[in-house]
Amino acid sequence: MTGIVEAVLAFDEAKTVRLVQAELDQGTDATTILHDGLIAAMDGVGKRFSEGVFFVPEMLMAAQAMKGGVEALRPRLAVSEVTAEGAVVIGTVKGDQHDIGKNLVAMMLECAGFKVINLGVDVAANKFLAAAKRYNARIVAMSALLTTTLPAVEATVAKVRKEGGGFKTMVGGAPVTQALADKIGADGYSPDAAGAVLVARKLVSS
Question: What's the pTM?
Answer without folding.
Answer: 0.76
